[in-house]
Design a protein that fits this description.
- The chain is of the alpha/beta class.
- The chain is built from 10 helices and 20 strands.
- The protein starts with a strand and ends with a strand.
C-alpha cells in the first residue's frame, strides 16, 4: 500500500479526528498511488495516524479510518450496518409511513465522499470522490446484505458529482435490480422520485422535517412555494389545510413532477397551480396575495469565490419576499450552500428585512434532519440553514 508522509506538526487536525488531509500538509508520498486508491497516512516521525482514499486536489486524502485496519468487504459491511442501525434508532427507517431517508451522509457517517438515499425498495448511491466510485460495487454489496428484505434495487447516480478532471466516463445505472416503480412515501405522503435525471438523488430528503413544520403553519393560508423542484413543500401545505398553493420553478420538467406529486396525494384538487417561470421574474410581477412563502433556492455558492455574489442573491431574494408578503405572513427561507455560514445567511436575511422596513421576528432556526448527521469533528458538514420568520 502507498504511504503518505506528513510534514512535521501537520497531524494535529487528524489527532482531532478531522477526516481530511490537505495537500499542503504532505511532505512526500511513498509510491505512486492512483486517484481513488487506499493509502496509509503517517506522521513525520513514522507513526500511523489514518487510512483513506487518495485524490488529486487540495483535499489529498479523505480519511476512512483512524484505526490501522484493512478497507475490505468487512469494513464496508460494518460501516453500512452502523449507519442503518442509527436510522432505525431515530425512527426514520422501519417506519410504515416513511420509507424515504438518507442512509449514508458522507463525513457524517465516517464515509467521506459517499451519499446513499433510500426510496422504498431502491437505494440511490452517489459518489462525490473517485475513491467511492472505485469502491461502488463493494458499497452496493454491503447495502444489499445489510438491508436484505428492505432494499431490492441499487441505482448508481454519480455522472454529475464526480470530479470531471478524473475522466472516469461514468454512466448512471442500476448496479442491482432495476425497478420502474419510482413512488416513495414521506410522512404518509407519496411522491415520484426522478433518480434517473433529477437533481441530487432524485428528491431533497433533507427538508423532510422542515416540510412537516410548514404543514403546521399552512391552515387557511395562501402559500407560495418558490424553487419548488418536485413540490415537496406544496403537498405538505395542502395537507395542512392551505386555501391555495402556487408552485414556481424555472424547470418545466420539475413543474410536471410537482403536478404529478400533487395529483398522487390530492387528485383533482383545485387549490394548486404550478408555474414554470424564473423566480425573480415571478416575484417581481406577483401581487400581495400570499401570507406564507417558501424560499428554498439551489446553492447560490458552491465555492468560496462565489460567496459575495451568493450573499447578494440571498439579500435580493428575501427583500422581494419581505416587500410582497401580507402582514402577519410567515416566511420559510433557506440556504443549502456549504460555504455560506449560518452567520452569513442570517446577516443577508436581516439586511433584507431592514431594507423592507417591516417588523420581523424569528420563530424557528432550522437545519438538516438527523439522518443527515454532522460529524462533531467535521463542522463543515452542517450545510443546510433555515429561518422561519413572522412578518408584521
Amino acid at each position: 500500500m502507498n504511504i503518505v508522509h506528513l510534514k512535521k506538526g501537520k497531524e494535529e487536525s487528524l489527532k482531532r479526528f478531522h477526516p481530511w488531509v490537505f495537500s499542503g500538509a504532505i511532505h512526500h508520498i511513498q509510491g505512486e498511488p492512483e486517484e481513488g486508491e487506499v493509502v496509509r497516512v503517517l506522521t513525520a516521525d513514522g507513526q500511523f495516524i489514518a487510512v483513506g482514499h487518495y485524490q488529486i486536489g487540495s483535499i489529498a486524502v479523505r480519511v476512512l479510518s483512524f484505526v490501522d485496519e484493512p478497507i475490505d468487504e468487512a469494513f464496508w459491511h460494518r460501516r453500512i450496518a452502523v449507519a442503518y442501525d442509527m436510522r432505525r434508532a431515530i425512527g426514520v427507517a422501519g417506519n410504515p409511513l416513511n420509507n424515504t431517508y438518507r442512509l449514508v451522509h458522507g463525513e457524517g457517517d465516517n464515509l467521506p465522499g459517499l451519499v446513499i438515499d433510500v426510496y422504498g425498495s431502491t437505494a440511490v448511491v452517489q459518489a462525490h470522490s473517485v475513491g467511492m466510485h472505485v469502491y461502488r460495487h463493494e458499497v452496493a454489496r454491503a447495502v444489499a446484505d445489510v438491508m436484505k428484505g428492505v432494499v431490492e434495487n441499487i441505482y448508481y447516480k454519480s455522472e454529475t458529482t464526480l470530479p470531471f478532471k478524473a475522466d472516469l466516463g461514468q454512466e448512471n445505472g442500476f448496479i442491482l435490480g432495476g425497478s420502474a416503480d419510482n413512488v416513495a412515501m414521506e410522512n404518509g405522503l407519496k411522491f415520484h422520485v426522478d433518480w434517473l435525471k433529477g437533481q441530487k438523488t432524485g428528491f431533497f430528503v433533507d427538508q423532510r422535517e422542515n416540510r412537516a413544520l410548514l404543514e403546521r403553519y399552512s391552515k387557511d393560508r395562501s402559500v407560495l412555494n418558490m424553487f419548488c423542484y418536485t413540490g415537496g413543500f406544496s403537498f405538505y401545505a395542502m395537507r395542512g389545510g392551505a386555501k391555495l398553493v402556487h408552485s414556481v420553478d424555472s424547470s418545466a420538467k420539475a413543474i410536471d413532477l410537482t403536478n404529478q406529486n400533487v395529483e398522487l396525494n390530492f387528485p383533482g384538487d383545485p387549490r394548486h397551480t404550478a408555474y414554470a417561470e424564473d423566480a425573480f421574474k415571478y416575484l417581481d410581477r406577483m401581487g400581495d396575495q400570499y401570507d406564507l412563502i417558501i424560499l428554498d433556492p439551489p446553492a447560490f455558492a458552491k465555492h468560496k469565490d462565489a460567496l459575495r455574489n451568493a450573499l447578494q442573491g440571498y439579500r435580493k431574494l428575501n427583500a422581494k419576499a419581505f416587500e410582497k408578503i401580507k402582514p402577519g405572513g410567515i416566511l420559510f427561507t433557506f440556504s443549502c450552500s456549504q460555504v455560506v455560514t449560518k452567520d452569513n445567511f442570517r446577516t443577508a436575511v436581516f439586511t433584507a428585512a431592514a431594507m423592507s422596513g417591516r417588523s420581523v421576528r424569528i420563530l424557528h432556526q432550522l437545519t438538516q434532519p438527523a439522518d443527515h448527521p454532522v460529524n462533531i469533528y467535521h463542522p463543515e458538514g452542517e450545510y443546510l440553514k433555515g429561518l422561519v420568520l413572522y412578518v408584521e
